[in-house]
Amino acid sequence: MRTDRLKVSLGNLRLDNPTMLASGILGYSAETLSSIVAGGAGAVVTKSVGLKPRKGYANPTVVQADFGLINALGLPNPGIDEFVGEIHEMKRLGIPLIVSVYGFSAEEYATVAKKAVGAGADAMELNVSCPHVKETGSEIGQKPEVLAEVVRKVKAVVDRPVFVKLSPNVTDLAEIAEAAVKAGADGITAINTVRAMAIDVETAMPILSNKRGGLSGPAVKPIALRCVYDIHERVKVPILGCGGVTGWRDAVEFFLAGASAVQIGTAIALKGPNVFRSVAKGVDAYLKRKGLRSVNEIVGLSHRS
Ligand SMILES: Cc1cc2nc3c(=O)[nH]c(=O)nc-3n(C[C@H](O)[C@H](O)[C@H](O)COP(=O)(O)O)c2cc1C
């Protein structure tokens, strides 16, 4: 989908349209990502990758909920040294490539980010919000000082935009976004999944092997929207809205709340990879109908008094 109305710039990242693949959904190989590019995404975010390979949790790792999914995959990934080969391949997809990084310390985040940039990543997304793995993810992203240290260490070694992906499972998300931006973050992604669980009434046991997981999909959209609204009130960097986007109206709501682009994950399971094109087309038709020339004109518009 290429119209000038949909073009967005996130720092020096230029997107043909403001939709991108959310981390963790089909983000491991160049081959699976090519279906997302064919489906019309403006950019892709890889699955989160760490310093060392991780197997992740035993099955079941995903369970269907009303209006969403609950997952606790446990950050399975091949480790950055193995993943650099895949990053080289992904670069051929021809759209901006954002590599999602996690670590168990600020130094680990920085090492992984440096290797990802060395392999060609156009930007980083720091996963400081995974709700189901101990000593990383949201355990880092809920402590402003620890998060700031991670951002500073990464910014010191990479010369590409750094987005920080936040968790909704905190008391004051805007305060945490502010700490990330003060430490040098170029943008904020909101949100990762919402802590959740499901119980099987026949076995009388939690369904996920990890017991607790994270909820995604339409059920979390109102939460994600409020988070983006809160963050936009506090910081002036691009926000990537994420959580429950399945159609163009959802995307427009996120732009009005203050997002400059949206990420889409669970909807791919519901609607297939063409969801990106249909969201972009719908947003374009909305802008045209309203007589607007650019998606930028509606970013944060719902904040006017
Ligand atoms: C199966 C699955 C795996 C995920 N893995 C990751 C991940 O590796 N890193 C990350 O930052 N977020 C991960 N997420 C969270 C998504 O990127 C996104 O923040 C969340 O699902 C909300 O968006 P959605 O409702 O469009 O799916 C995962 C989500 C799902 C459903």
Give the secondary structure arrangement, pairings included.
Elements lengths: L7 E3 L2 E3 L3 E3 L8 H9 L4 E3 L16 E4 L2 E4 L8 H11 L6 E5 L4 H14 L3 E5 L10 H4 L2 H14 L4 E5 L6 H10 L4 E4 L3 E4 L1 E2 L4 E2 L5 E5 L4 H14 L4 E4 L5 H10 L3 E4 L2 H5 L3 H15 L16
Parallel strand pairs: 3-4, 3-16, 4-7, 7-8, 8-9, 9-10, 10-15, 15-16
Antiparallel strand pairs: 1-2, 5-6, 6-14, 11-14, 12-13
Helix pairs in contact: 1-2, 2-3, 3-5, 5-6, 6-7, 7-8, 8-10
The protein binds flavin mononucleotide.
Describe this structure in words.
The structure is a single chain. The protein has 305 residues and is an alpha/beta fold. It has one domain: TIM Barrel (Alpha-Beta Barrel). 35% of the residues lie in helices and 20% in strands. The protein contains 10 helices and 16 strands. The chain has an 8-stranded parallel barrel, surrounded by 7 helices. A 4-stranded antiparallel sheet has the order 5-6-14-11, with no helix packed on it. A hairpin with a 4-residue loop joins strand 12 and strand 13. Helix 6 packs across helix 7. It is globular and about 55 Å long. The two termini are 33 Å apart.
Please sum up the structure shown:
This protein has helices at about 30-40, 80-90, 105-120, 140, 145-155, 175-180, 220-235, 250-255, 265-270, 275-290, and strands at about 10, 15, 20, 45, 60-65, 70, 95-100, 125, 160-165, 185-190, 195, 200, 205, 210-215, 240, 260-265. The chain has about 300 residues and is α/β, with parallel strands linked by helices.
